[in-house]
Amino acid sequence: MQVDLDTLRGFFRSAPFMVDLGVEPTAVEPGRVSTQLVVAKRHCQHTGVVHAGVVAALADHSMGAAAQTMAADGHWVLTAEFKTSLLRGASGERLECEAWVIKPGRQVSFTEAEVYAVQGGERRLVAKASGTMAVTAARQG
């Protein structure tokens, strides 16, 4: 499936939870997607760092989108399994995620992602993720 940045933005806008979080795609190429999220107080937990669920959701949807760029027309990608390793508390102006496909397939694709916290000019790796994405035929109606 050939996906440009406008198409990818539409894909993200069709996912209400990503809209609620404020996740925006910033770059796309086959098998690779970059996204960002401007950090707001609502994204944080009681200690002031970004909630692990926000970091995991950013990585998960970005990995799925990367796999979607390589899926055959008429097919959707759904997460079958993912793991997120939190390396340090995420705080800053925004989070940036880079996600890529490490092995595409007709039924299953394997993906990875890195999430960075950005403050000023400093970019720090805060999480690494891996995901198994199921490639399924799109349902009609």
Automatic annotation (TrEMBL):
Pfam families: 4HBT
CDD domains: PaaI_thioesterase
Keywords associated with the record: Hydrolase
InterPro entries, sorted: ACOT13, HotDog_dom_sf, PAAI_dom, Thioestr_dom
Domain of life: Bacteria
Coiled-coil segments: none
Domain Thioesterase: 48-121
Family to which this protein belongs: Belongs to the thioesterase PaaI family.
Xref: PANTHER family: ACYL-COENZYME A THIOESTERASE 13 (PTHR21660:SF1), THIOESTERASE SUPERFAMILY MEMBER-RELATED (PTHR21660)
Protein name according to UniProt: Uncharacterized protein (TIGR00369 family)
